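INFO  loader      accepted 1 record
INFO  loader      residues=418
INFO  predictor   begin
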Amino acid sequence: MDLSRAAAEALDAADPLAAFRGRFVGAREDGLLYLDGNSLGRMPVQTPAALAWVVEEEWARGLVRSWPSWIGAATRVGDLLAEGVLGARPGEVLMGDSTTVDLYKLLVAAADARPGRDVLVCCADDFPTDRYVVAGVAQARGMTVREVPADVDEGLDPAVLAAALDKRVAVVVLSAVAYRSGALADVAAVTAAARDAGALVVWDLSHAAGAVPVDLAANGVDLAVGCTYKYLNGGPGAPAFLYVRRELQERLRQPIWGWFGQRDQFAMGPAYDPVPGIERFAVGTPPVLALAAVEVGARLVAEAGVDRLAAKGRALGELVVALADAWLAPHGVALASPRDPARRGAHVTLAHPRAWQLTQALVDRGVVPDFRTPDRVRFGPAPLYTRFVDVWDAMACLRDVLASGAHEGYPTVRARVT
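INFO  predictor   done
INFO  writer      dumping tokens
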């Protein structure tokens, strides 16, 4: 592999997604080497105008008369995600609440659908909020949590998971892409194995949606949740989405009974009677302003095409790995993600004993990755707007920091990171 900067420039010149870079604020002119798109995506150029329209026209002038266009926003944007990003059918994806709340709703509904089973399974190295929700639901219901061990770099071994599945397991909660290492799960195989054991799986797609194909319908997925502020560029605190396979919807009843999930919500009836479709998983008023931002980001991803984004994401990741092997390994840096690109999502993680200090030194030099415990620097080059030369320059900066020892002057105290 040619590791010259000229080779990276040639890859950019041939990139079929190159034009999308100009559709994000600052991507061309701020000079920032932003490699943290797996935490928070850049803002699309169209987002301020979309928000302004809702604020200045629909809210300021339309007032309550704008509710006919707002009330269906959660399903309208959900359908956009279903078709353009998630490989699902219309009426299977709903926007609203946070990933944590959506996970709680689906986990409780799924556990109720498996009476007589008293075990919830999750991965010991999964994102904390997922494990916390599983533990909280188990405690409230008198169930047992079965945490499956996983290699922090290579991810979950399917054989280890299979050994944890038995007739006691009601629900399995797993991430399609591991948040720390980027390890990619075999969604279809895991879903089938759980189904054979009589269990349901709730997939967390937060590090997958908009970066790798998830093909929910083709993979037989029953339930999923995910955020929209990473590769979908919906903005900080953007609402999450949940997915429920159409054939399963009327068999599940989620635990938070709100009037937006009611069959005839404006009848203001005395008893809760959930609407038959995906709307039964709604709770309260949709976050109209936030959904306007999510819609812009989702349309960009759909226009680019998830398959093309995944191909570029793999290529960007391969460049990170190749440069790390050539330049950084002599300085004690090790790959902390699967080496096989077919087993990785769109981010790559590197391990070093001074990872926290290295991250701070990079940020001070205009390179933005992020830090993950215990000793990881995580690089998330979002394929919609990250160039190959950005990756080259960022790795060159890290090489120079290591060679000069510039990171040694940074404190070991770790600030709060998200």
